[in-house]
């Protein structure tokens, strides 16, 4: 595959090939149009046209588009974890304007005619043609020309094909208006396809040496149930929708036998997971207590929960299921001074500085006062618009509310402990 220099290499090749046509001895163009013909690759607004009757061909790359055939030809470059697994090529189609400039009658038509005839007969830039032209650039004093052979354009899997491209009057008019240059006899060309590939390191799997144990192929069983360890549901206590610190989580699944048994909790914002040992275990049910030795490592939010069976080379990890860790209100105290109610809340686990925190008192949501430390279990809220008396309270962190509904009752009711008296 070629690299990012390939676009410039194609333009340089076309320019030099057209230069070769304009200087061919058998055509004798310098005598026909009265002077030598220069070939450039500049924007039209930079061309000093018709000065002293100068003759010129100009090649202008006016558009680059993804090639539809190569756009989705290979897999994405990264996996779900963000690791690079491939370097899919970038396939590009190039669109050029070939314009003739001259200071005398019909000279521009002569130049354009010979150039169009040559590109029509050329059709494809062969690998040999590209390599030969690159050899002439290798010893060039121009650092750009000297670098272009490194693009490896001749080695890409696709050959460079050149074909006329039809532009209607409106499209041509818009192009020349955008370049802020005077229109001159012009032909448009489509050059395809340029393949640009990165040189980044990518992961590559080792070849398969055996198809299952003893090379007997894939093991099959007459069942729709997976033979792999799988967790099917997570059950917080008391029919809750989230778990709190100090509570026991029940994990249901199948094929969960083994030793040792651990549960991994991975927060959406933290790359490193937290691991807790399983309490009681059967092949279909585990329990794990959310009472870690390092409670400060836990962050309120959504966790991905997976079971880990075994260790070392025999370790197996189950699928993942989401679980919300909700805040708990440990203590709440409200005071009032000068018409402003100050509410101090002690919570578990600690709230991290970058988290969004609200205290909902009755039907009013109060923003937390600025948190000045990395983690804290003491939060302060202030409001001058709270009614006096007993109010239901909820602490909302990262959109997750503290649990204040008792779902064991029929119908469900509010937890009587989740109240605060506003003075």
Topology:
Elements (H helix, E strand, L loop, with lengths): L5 H17 L6 H5 L3 E4 L14 E12 L23 E12 L5 H16 L1 E2 L1 H12 L4 H5 L12 E5 L4 H11 L6 E11 L33 E6 L12 E7 L6 E7 L6 E4 L7 E5 L11 E9 L6 E10 L2 E10 L2 E13 L4 E5 L2 E4 L7 E9 L5 E9 L2 E2 L3 E2 L6 E2 L4 E4 L1
Walkthrough of the structure:
The protein is α+β, with helices and mostly antiparallel strands and 423 residues long. It has three domains: 191 residues, no CATH class; 96 residues, Sandwich (Immunoglobulin-like), CATH 2.60.40.10; 95 residues, Immunoglobulin-like (Sandwich), CATH 2.60.40. 16% of the residues lie in helices and 36% in strands. The strands form six sheets. The protein has a six-stranded mixed sheet with strand order 1-2-3-6-5-4. Strands 16, 17, 19, 20 and 23 form a five-stranded antiparallel sheet that branches. The protein is elongated.
N-to-C span: 75 Å
Spatial extent as radius of gyration = 36 Å
Quickly count the domains. 3
> What percentage of the residues does DSSP assign to strands (E)?
35-45%
Mean pLDDT across all amino acids: 89
Number of helices: 6
Largest sheet: 6 strands, mixed
| Residue runs with pLDDT of under 50 for 5 or more positions | none
Structure summary, number of beta strands = 23
Question: Can you tell me the overall shape?
Answer: elongated
The helix-strand sequence is HHEEEHEHHEHEEEEEEEEEEEEEEEEEE
Secondary structural class: alpha+beta
Helix amount? 10-25%
What is the topology, as strand order, of the major beta sheet?
1-2-3-6-5-4
